[in-house]
Design brief:
By secondary structure, the chain is an alpha/beta fold. It has 2 domains: 265 residues, UDP-N-acetylmuramoyl-L-alanine:D-glutamate ligase (3-Layer(aba) Sandwich); 138 residues, Protein-Tyrosine Phosphatase, Chain A. Helices cover 40% and strands 21% of the residues. The chain contains 14 helices and 15 strands. The protein has a 9-stranded mixed sheet, sandwiched between helices. A 6-stranded mixed sheet has the order 10-11-15-12-13-14, with helices on both faces. The model has no long low-confidence stretch (mean pLDDT 95).
């Protein structure tokens, strides 16, 4: 019965959302990828919000329920049976009586299982499609026959773009760059590679009052070099998000100075995605606890490794939904840890493989702690950390490593 009701709801939300797109004809920007979708969404919104009437997807509204809800209104969370009656009533009202509606919709298209992108494209075909990154072992690959099947699903986004549309592709990811021959639209590439149309250079951490405060970088577009600055975050992932979003700004005829200024002023990075958080004992937490894939895990560890003159602690949880690739992926992370981390804390069954691999690659086994879950770990971690340590916290969402972030935040220092 529950499944029938859900299918009935999905079917009718789809119809209402499709009709709303037809009625108001907004410019649709759709973002997919295995990592970086939400950051790219937030960066795009930051750049456009001062110049256009824009609506972005709330939270993780990136599936067959969330995407229609974003199209139908500024709903932020689902609140029970009466909520759905309200959604239907308001949606029908806006279809019958034309009212104010966003010029631009920024949507996330998740591909958690086969045909997800296909379904979402039936609701709203974008004019601008962004593919952030996929990686050698993508997230959610457990639900696909193999990596090629997952890539084919994500490629649907650029295949369905119109001739007048734009595919914005990560030049540094070979699986994404390969998509440029699959689209009828124009192609813009971004990344650190020399071949990128919108090239990121000179990425550095910056400091305020001798404390790590964010990142700076430059972008080169058609020979013009423009500085960018983002506060409160760390890592290449936010530079990638800014670059992808900047391509949208250029397509919509903003100049690079406008883009850089709007990003600095308006960008509010999503929670738990390489956010810098003040911790107890004057520590600095790199909070990347929202989710984890092999690509994002490796990037986070590289960013941690670039920090000097502090003890670097990595608190790493299981990377889930990797299927047959799981053991290999965790072992590869162990190799990276051995080169860039000073103290390792592993949480979860699969994360133990990270520890074992790190030891095989000459990491000191006396500098490793292993726990079964975040609840058993958080108090011990609190005792283990020292003054001025830098602590990366990262794992799949189900591992609940955000509990450890909360335990180590400075405002909790005098509790318990």
């Amino acid at each position: 019965m529950k499944k029938k009701l859900l299918n009935f709801l999905k079917k009718n939300l789809k119809k209402l959302a499709h009709a709303t797109i037809w009625r108001y004809k907004p410019l649709v920007i759709a973002i997919t990828g295995s990592v970086g979708k939400t950051s790219a969404k937030e960066a795009t919104y930051a750049i456009l919000k001062d110049h256009y009437k824009v609506r972005k997807a709330s939270g993780n509204f990136n599936n067959e329920i969330g995407v229609p809800l974003t199209i139908l209104g500024e709903w932020e969370e689902i609140k029970g049976p009466l909520f759905w009656l309200k959604v239907v009533f308001v949606s029908l009202f806006h279809l019958l009586i034309k009212t104010s509606y966003p010029e631009i919709l920024i949507l996330e298209y998740a591909a958690d299982k086969p045909n997800d992108i296909k379904y979402l494209l039936e609701i709203a075909r974008p004019k601008i499609g962004i593919v952030t990154a996929i990686g050698e072992i993508p997230s959610h690959i457990e639900f696909y026959a193999d990596r090629d099947a997952l890539v084919r699903e994500k490629t649907r986004l650029v295949e369905q773009l119109p001739v007048s549309g734009y595919a914005i592709l990560n030049c540094d990811d070979p699986l994404v760059k390969r998509m440029e021959v699959k689209t009828r639209g124009k192609v813009m590439t971004f990344g650190f590679s020399f071949g990128a149309n919108f090239r990121i250079t000179n990425l550095e951490n910056f400091f305020e009052d001798d404390k790590l405060a964010g990142i700076t970088f430059k972008v080169n577009y058609q020979g013009n070099v423009t500085p960018f600055k983002i506060k409160g975050v760390l890592g290449r992932s936010h530079a990638y998000a800014a670059a992808a979003a900047s391509c949208v700004g250029l397509i919509l005829e903003l100049n690079l100075v406008q883009i850089s200024e709007s990003l600095f002023k308006n960008y509010k990075p999503a929670s738990h995605r390489m956010n810098l958080v003040k911790g107890i004992k004057d520590t600095l937490i790199i909070d990347d606890s929202y989710n984890a894939s092999p690509l994002s895990m490796r990037e986070a560890i590289v960013s941690l490794g670039e920090i000097k003159n502090h003890r670097r602690i990595a608190v790493l949880g299981d990377m889930l939904e990797l299927g047959k690739y799981s053991d290999e992926a965790h072992e590869e992370i162990g190799k990276e840890v051995a080169k860039k981390v000073d103290f390792l804390i592993c949480i979860g069954e699969k994360a133990k493989l990270i520890a074992e691999s790190a030891i095989k690659h000459n990491f000191d086994k006396n500098k490793i702690l292993i726990f079964n879950n975040s609840d058993s770990a958080k108090k011990m971690i609190k005792k283990e950390i020292g003054n001025f340590d830098v602590i990366l916290i990262k794992g799949s969402h189900a591992m609940q490593l955000d509990k450890i972030v909360e335990e180590l935040k400075r405002e909790n220092e005098n509790e318990n």
